[in-house]
């Protein structure tokens, strides 16, 4: 599937994996979500990625998941929206991809099969099926959570078949950037974990599917732009300032941490749906301290 002509690679730049604002009764606050998407773009972000793991897609009803995509599109335009379309079954993932396409989105993000430890043949068949929806796919490699690793050799096969155009790389192994570039030079590498942003930007990343810009969009965009431009003086300073927060993106409690930081910074993060539980007191204090330091430093 060829990307849209007006935005040939809409996954370039800073795309925020959006946290989903919930009210105290755990219902989705779509008004706040629309405002949040617009605020992120106003602060320099290039787009949003709803219905990812940070958006708690696993605990949404189909109706909620559909409305989240429609709300984001209405707020910032479909070309800026790249929904997550992960599902246990390939047919269901394809239906979510079709829903995103019908809503006007320019691309989607797709995990490999994650109901079991899928082998290479199953991974290829999964992406082949979802690609039939006719919308460009960004693969999401998260072997920590899914136990399925899209290693560079497999990514090269997926790209050669035309199933994927880019990869959100969350393995944490920055060495893979160079192997991916050797095996599939036209496959775009996207930073998938906030705490390896600088390392992967230097290695040639074309985008960042980001978590902590939910709280600090302007500072995060400045960090990303400086990093990819090779301005290491600016990027290095910001990276050191933000890393106590960015590293939470790679922890199991990343949703709770980012939502707490949003609340502290005056944004509405709100609670999480079960089975996620609140942070432990020591975790909360660590997040609070790092967030307050960033705010005190004038970062936003």
TrEMBL record:
The reply on keyword Repeat is no
State the CDD domains in the record.
Answer: DHDPS-like (cd00408)
Please, which domain of life does this record's source organism belong to? Bacteria
User: Which SMART domains does the UniProt entry name for this protein?
Assistant: DHDPS
Keyword list (alphabetical) reads: Lyase
Q: Which InterPro entries match?
A: Aldolase_TIM, DapA-like
May I ask which residue range the UniProt record assigns to the signal sequence? Answer: none
The record's family statement is:
Belongs to the DapA family.
> What is the name attached to this protein's record?
Dihydrodipicolinate synthase family protein
């Amino acid at each position: 599937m060829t990307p849209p002509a007006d935005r040939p690679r809409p996954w370039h730049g800073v795309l925020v994996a959006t946290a989903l604002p919930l009210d105290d009764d755990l219902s989705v606050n779509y008004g706040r979500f629309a405002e949040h998407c617009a605020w992120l773009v106003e602060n320099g972000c290039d787009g949003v990625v709803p219905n990812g793991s940070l958006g708690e897609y696993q605990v949404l009803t189909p109706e909620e998941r559909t409305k989240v995509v429609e709300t984001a599109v209405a707020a910032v335009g479909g070309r800026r929206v790249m929904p997550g379309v992960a599902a246990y079954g390939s047919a269901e993932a394809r239906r979510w991809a079709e829903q995103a396409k019908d809503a006007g989105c320019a691309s989607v993000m797709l995990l490999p099969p994650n109901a079991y430890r899928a082998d290479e043949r199953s991974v290829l068949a999964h992406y082949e099926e979802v690609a039939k929806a006719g919308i460009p796919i960004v693969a999401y490699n998260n072997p920590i959570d899914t136990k399925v690793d899209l290693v560079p050799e497999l990514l090269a096969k997926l790209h050669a078949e035309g199933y994927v155009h880019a990869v959100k790389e969350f393995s944490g192994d920055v060495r893979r950037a160079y192997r991916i570039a050797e095996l599939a030079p036209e496959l775009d590498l996207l930073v998938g974990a906030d705490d390896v942003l600088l390392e992967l930007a230097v290695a040639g990343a074309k985008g960042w599917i980001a978590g902590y810009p939910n709280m600090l969009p302007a500072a995060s965009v400045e960090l990303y732009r400086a990093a990819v431009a090779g301005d290491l003086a600016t990027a290095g300073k910001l990276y050191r300032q933000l890393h106590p927060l960015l590293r939470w993106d790679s922890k199991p409690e990343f949703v709770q941490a980012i939502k707490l930081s949003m609340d502290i910074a005056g944004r509405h993060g709100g609670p999480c749906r079960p089975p996620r539980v609140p942070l432990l007191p020591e975790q909360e204090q660590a997040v609070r301290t790092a967030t307050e330091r960033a705010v005190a430093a004038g970062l936003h």
